[in-house]
Amino acid sequence: MYERKISPNLNCGLDLIAEVLYGKWKIRLLWFINEGHRRPSELQRKIPDASRRVLNIQLNELEEHELISKVIYPQAPPKVEYSLTEFGRSLIPVIAALGNWGDENAGRLRTVISKRIGQNHDQ
Fold it and tell me: Domains (ranges, CATH) in the chain?
């Protein structure tokens, strides 16, 4: 099991948010669950670049942070559905604002990201 070497800073709001949302797919998972994609297979189809294992880890972390809840239906095979908690729903306007900012600055962001990627390949 992973053991953290440095304790997180829990005194700053930005550090707290990073602690909860750090993970490549977490913001997308929250967004797609909010849109009604609640089953693991639906989320996998929405994020095909992510492995099932990584999605499960990040879903478990979101559940531990009380942003989503999981319901397991007792049937064969078991059916699992995720939904946002009230706490998780409070993040949706923040995620929407970040998405809008990204859309408004898409050209510039693509340029700077492409430059950085090009620099990394040159090294």
Answer: 13-90 (1.10.10.10)
